[in-house]
């Protein structure tokens, strides 16, 4: 026979359990409420119509990066969106210490040049979705290492509202080389990237490097001039062949322009240059982690 004392004891246990469950539920709700949201429920995404705002930042990221250019979407400060990050790595001719005297050299080529000339589109449409980049263009003091690129990614994650599923790495000549070398240094690095776009990349190709990128299913589009006297086009060709040998998915893309000279980047980065209806920026935005 169950006594009144037993009943009261069971009721107390039940009430304690309900209180504990309620506390867990409340704590769980509080935690969920602070999670970032790429497109807040309170507002619909409005495509950018004004050019990105590019600023010279005289701040060290690490010992090899003394400054950088940062381009933010025009409405960055008035939204809560997370934006795709495009990291651009310059060539060897643009090495410098990031000072006011040297940093402007980075504006010679690629996306930072286009942005400074107001020729970089404020909005890219891919698959019915609209995107605006955060573009970070560091100035290296000497030939960069994979660790330098990792430092840039860590810095960007901690300072700006970036969509970490959409980090894209590109560069020309030396910068194209570090694009290859970072993506192939290890699988963890490759998995941080949504796609890479090396242009006339100065990096030694190997099957081992390709295997690393293939394991991460990293989208790759390599571009090069056929008769490049500075960095042979065989580097890009061999990288893509090695990726195909590794059965990389998606299949790597290769563009060899049938011209001489080292400068494949003016055409490659031109937003008006398209293949299959997409420029290089739209091609990258097809992919995310």
From TrEMBL:
**Secretion signal: which residues?**
none
Molecular function per GO: hydrolase activity
Among Gene3D superfamilies, the record links this protein to: alpha/beta hydrolase
Kindly state which keywords UniProt assigns to this record, in alphabetical order: Signal
Q: Name one Pfam family in it.
A: Abhydrolase_2
Which ranges carry the Phospholipase/carboxylesterase/thioesterase domain?
84-267
At the top level of its lineage, which domain of life is listed? Bacteria
Protein name (database record): Phospholipase/carboxylesterase
């Amino acid at each position: 026979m169950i006594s009144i004392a037993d009943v009261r004891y069971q009721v107390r246990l039940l009430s304690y359990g309900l209180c504990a469950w309620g506390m867990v539920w409340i704590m769980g709700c509080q935690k969920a409420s602070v999670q970032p949201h790429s497109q807040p429920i309170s507002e619909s995404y409005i495509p950018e119509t004004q050019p990105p705002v590019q600023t010279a930042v005289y701040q060290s990221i690490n010992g090899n990066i003394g400054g950088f250019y940062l381009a933010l979407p025009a409405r960055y400060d008035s939204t809560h969106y997370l934006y795709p990050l495009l990291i651009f790595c310059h060539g060897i001719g643009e090495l410098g210490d990031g000072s006011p005297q040297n940093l402007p050299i980075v504006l010679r080529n690629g996306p930072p040049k286009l942005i400074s000339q107001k020729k970089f589109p404020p909005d890219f449409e891919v698959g019915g979705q609209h995107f605006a980049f955060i573009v970070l263009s560091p100035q290296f003091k000497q030939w960069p290492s994979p660790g330098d690129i990792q430092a840039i990614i860590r810095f960007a994650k901690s300072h700006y509202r970036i969509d970490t599923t959409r980090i894209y790495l590109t560069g020309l000549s030396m910068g194209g080389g570090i694009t290859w070398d970072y993506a192939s240094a290890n699988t963890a690095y490759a998995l941080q990237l949504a796609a890479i776009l090396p242009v006339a990349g100065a990096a030694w190709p190997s099957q081992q490097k390709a295997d690393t990128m293939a394991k991460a299913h990293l989208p790759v589009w390599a571009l090069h001039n056929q008769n490049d006297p500075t960095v042979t086009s065989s580097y890009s060709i061999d990288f893509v062949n090695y990726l195909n040998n590794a059965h990389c998915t998606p299949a790597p893309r290769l563009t060899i322009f049938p011209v001489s000279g080292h400068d494949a980047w003016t055409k490659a980065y031109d937003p008006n240059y398209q293949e299959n209806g997409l420029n290089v920026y739209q091609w990258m935005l097809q992919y995310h982690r």
